[in-house]
Design goal:
7 helices, single chain
């Protein structure tokens, strides 16, 4: 039961740029954290419907940074805590379903669970979906948390041993996943061409086409 789960508190607002346990000199690695109502076992296929601005921003930022690994952890009943142990999941595809669901969900994120990780620290993202300029310091001070990052052990966050044991993300899957990631990144750049520039968007599209070939 949930009484046997060790919980970490979630703060309501952003206070520090880095959690103390993931500061300079630490051997921990920071990964984006998605809060769930289910515990996933390694090897499982994990499909998450994304509807909140924070969750959608998490995955958009993940693809923009070229990342694929996310920590999925059980949220507390009052949504003020997260389980200390989470599941490391590898993003295989991010599907835009906003038209099909009539706005009820924006994306469906398909993953493969590749391991378990212990969360040693938390950091809230410093942005607010209501800000026109989320980079402005005055808007970020005390801004509501959009999504969280978890500090985990790099040996576990690497996912290579865990994925091999789970029979999931093998080298072929990783290459295929990278190709899909580049294509999804190209699609995202096309939608944001007016902000990143048409030339940069075209360059990303060309890179994705070469990788797919």
């Amino acid at each position: 039961g949930t009484g046997d789960i060790e919980w970490l508190p979630l703060q309501a607002t952003v206070t520090d740029a880095q959690p103390p346990s993931a500061g300079e000199g630490s051997e921990l690695r920071e990964l984006p954290l998605v809060l769930t109502d289910t515990v996933f076992l390694p090897g499982a296929e994990v499909a998450l419907r994304l509807s909140t601005p924070g969750d959608c921003r998490l995955y958009e930022d993940l693809l923009m940074a070229g990342g694929r690994l996310v920590v999925a952890a059980l949220r507390g009943q009052d949504e003020d805590a997260v389980a200390r142990w989470g599941t490391l999941v590898f993003l295989e595809e991010l599907r835009d379903v906003s038209e099909v669901t009539k706005g009820a969900s924006k994306y469906i994120a398909d993953h493969r669970a590749v391991g378990r990780v212990e969360i040693s620290g938390l950091r809230g993202s410093r942005w607010s979906s209501s800000d026109e300029d989320p980079s402005a310091e005055d808007a970020l001070a005390g801004a509501a948390v959009g999504y969280w990052h978890a500090a985990v052990s790099p040996s576990l966050a690497d996912a290579s041993p865990a994925s091999a044991a789970a029979g999931g993300a093998t080298a072929g899957v990783w290459r295929e996943g990278l190709s899909r990631a580049l294509q999804q990144l190209a699609d995202l750049y096309e939608r944001l061409a007016d902000k990143v520039g048409a030339g940069e968007a075209a360059a990303v599209s060309a890179t994705a086409a070469a990788a797919a070939g």
